[in-house]
Amino acid sequence: MTPHNHHHHPKSAPIPLIIVDGFLGCGSAVLWGKFSRFLNISSEKCENRRIIFVRVGPVSSLHDRACELYYALTGGTVDYGADHAKLHKHARYGRVNKAGMYPQWSPEQPLHFLGHSIGGSTIIKLQFLLKQRYFGPHVHPDMVLSVNTISAPFRGTQLVYILGECADAAPAVRPLSIGSLLSKWVHLVAFFSPLLPELLDLHVEARSLSFRDMSPVSLLKQLWKSDWAESHDAAPYDMTFEAADERESTLEGRAHPRTFYRSHVASLNSRLLTSSLPTSPLSSILSQPFRLLSHPISTFDYSVIQPAPSFLENDALILSSVSRSSDVVKNTSSTVYSSTLREEYKENDGIVPLFSQWHPLPCRSTQCRHFEHSKNFTLPSPDPGTWNVYHMDAANHISLAPCWTGNFQQRYFWTSLGQWLYSIDDHRHLHNSFSTDELDQYN
Ligand SMILES: [Zn+2]
Ligand SMILES: [Zn+2]
Question: Where is the Lipase-like C-terminal domain (predicted)?
């Protein structure tokens, strides 16, 4: 196929984009705003891309969220898996999806995915489960054509320890911490869930936490000490470095050779001239909580975490002969760590440090290309099996999504994402026509 007849060909519809929200996200298009105008800006010649928002458990573990995402798309009763359910003491089956949002989903009809925050980590978990044929022999990692993430905590974040997770005994939660208050809120919302609006739907029916399934006395017990918050099957634990190390030990998140990967990494630092860009009053109000949280994240002492995260041994420290020689390290570990920690372990978007937003696994164990956002930036050609990492300065955890402000950063992001997805669609189109030709030779 030549570029000339390309335009005259009746093009197939663009491959739909699935959007997955982050922690406490409501999975609704309302907040995300008018982004689709910019996503489709380069689509004059064909129809607009279909966008599907999928709501999954806003406080649930990555495993539970990935299962809910799968069945929301294909339809049917959510099956968390017999072994998983037994191990984590909740029911095997969850809600019934009477109709799937994309029942034709298959290796032949794959989908694009975009996740904000743990929505990104959820997509990685989903592709890992597809690779394991978790939902049956018919599923395949090829069903995920592209993974696009914004500020995803692939490798965990120290914020969970700052907010309440015990640094040396996760998933235990410190009493009277913000994390502990959050777990009380979760139990109250879950208990009264049959009476509450859909916006507060926590997707926890498999745990029997509502007043239909548990007594007020049991609720009080859970408010005192929560089985949910202090389990290995909840979102906060999945954001610990321990959980991330567990995932990476099985090579979860290793790039699939036929999937396209792109991550967007936000940093509150402003090295370039981006700080001189006009900011709206709304943006500056929204950024305040992230500015407050950024300081404890950047000054966090990683050496207090037990078991020690694997990156402390392998990647986080700038190796120098002075600090690494002999057993001095053991005696003065905290001072050595804080003085020689690499920048990407301190720099953050107010929620997640940079190194964790890049991609799963350290750079030496995965294929990756890192780019700085700049004015005359040209999009690289799509290359499957490689993470394309985009750095954004002067941006916080929610600068791009989920709250629409319509500023330059957001318009630029959605326009460039739209172009990227079209080039992947084209790449696939070409690739498929070649492989059909190849097949024809053998038939
Ligand atoms: Zn579970
Ligand atoms: Zn990398």
Answer: 39-132
Ligand nearest to the CA of 389: 2
HSE (side-chain half, CA atoms, 13 Å) at 375: 4
Using the mean position of ligand 2's atoms as its centre, give its distance from the Cα of residue 263 in Å.
10
Which ligand has the minimum distance to the alpha carbon of residue 365? 2
Ligand 1 centre to CA of 425 (Å) is 34
* Closest-approaching ligand to the CA atom of 354: 2
**Ligand 2 center to 432 CA (angstroms):** 29
Percentages (nearest 5) of helix, strand, coil residues in the chain: 45, 15, 45
Ligand (nearest to CA of 94) = 1
* Domain range list for the chain: 12-156+241-274+282-300+346-442, 303-344
Q: Which residues contact 311 (CB under 8 A, 6 or more apart)?
A: 155, 241, 345, 355, 362
Q: Tell me the longest C-alpha to C-alpha distance in the chain.
A: 72
The tens place of each residue's pLDDT in the chain, 443 residues long, gives 334 434 434 457 899 999 999 888 776 777 888 888 888 887 666 789 999 999 999 999 999 999 999 999 999 999 999 999 999 999 999 999 999 999 999 999 999 999 999 999 999 999 999 999 999 999 999 999 999 999 999 999 999 999 999 999 989 989 889 988 998 988 898 888 888 888 888 888 888 888 888 899 999 998 888 888 889 999 999 999 999 999 999 999 999 999 999 999 999 987 655 545 566 777 788 888 999 999 999 999 999 999 999 998 877 887 654 444 444 444 444 445 545 788 999 999 999 999 999 999 999 999 999 987 655 456 778 899 999 999 988 899 998 989 888 888 899 899 999 999 999 998 888 877 555 444 434 33
- For residue 148, the cross-strand partners are 114, 262
Looking at domain 12-156+241-274+282-300+346-442, its CATH architecture is: 3-Layer(aba) Sandwich (3.40)
Residues 24/58, Cβ–Cβ less than 8 Å:
yes
- Compute the distance from residue 379 Cα to the ligand 1 centre, in Å: 39
Q: Which ligand is nearest to the CA of 84?
A: 1
Distance from C-alpha of 384 to C-alpha of 131, rounded to nearest angstrom: 16
Ligand 2 centroid, distance to 353 Cα (angstroms): 14
For residue 87, give the ligand nearest its CA.
1
Distance 386 CA to ligand 2 centre (A): 9
